[in-house]
Write a structure and sequence with these properties.
Strand content: under 5%
Number of domains: 1
Radius of gyration: 27 Å
Largest sheet: none
Number of strands: 0
Helix content: 55-70%
Oligomer: single chain
Order of helices and strands: HHHHHHH
Length: 163
């Protein structure tokens, strides 16, 4: 089942406008509008996966439907699909608003990947392990041996506080 439904697009674009854009793209390319939409969705999904797969359980997200879906991922997905459709229409004349939203989503996905922002998705087990290892590692401990070896040469043994 697809992550997005046709109704979801009304969150970012009027239904009539989407149909007009798909019709124009179909006329220019010779493909059906539904095929163009499906290709744009697959491209957007692949791009989101490329950013997030190593850090988040994105596969589980793409299997969700309805209100259980992550709103940030949905927003990015929609904006990326609409950008891809406009790219099919005129690669050198993409509306500024679409291009800006696409670039904003890419930037946000990169920040999610770097864990600078939390999208509310579960971490992949390996990412969770790496994060915990980083938090509890002793990499910050620095050993500096005494250059003069005074401790090694000392013959004095400290007295035990226990009698």
């Amino acid at each position: 089942m697809a992550y997005l439904s046709k109704d979801d697009y009304s969150l970012r674009i009027q239904r009539k406008h989407l149909n007009d854009i798909l019709s124009q793209a179909a006329t220019q390319t010779g493909f059906k509008g539904d095929d163009i939409l499906e290709d744009a969705e697959l491209t957007a999904e692949a791009e989101i996966r490329a950013f997030l797969t190593d850090v988040y359980e994105i596969e589980a997200e793409f299997n969700k439907t309805g209100n259980s879906r992550n709103r940030l991922i949905m927003k990015c997905y929609l904006d990326m699909v609409l950008y891809e459709i406009h790219f099919v229409l005129a690669p050198t004349d993409i509306p500024v608003g679409r291009k800006n939203q696409y670039e904003k989503c890419r930037s946000m996905l990169d920040m999610m990947r770097q864990e600078e922002i939390n999208p509310g998705l579960p971490l992949v087990a390996a990412a969770e392990l790496a994060r915990n290892t980083e938090l509890f590692s002793n990499d910050k401990f620095i050993f500096h041996p005494h250059d003069d070896m005074s401790i090694a040469k000392s013959t004095t043994v400290p007295k035990s506080p226990i009698p």
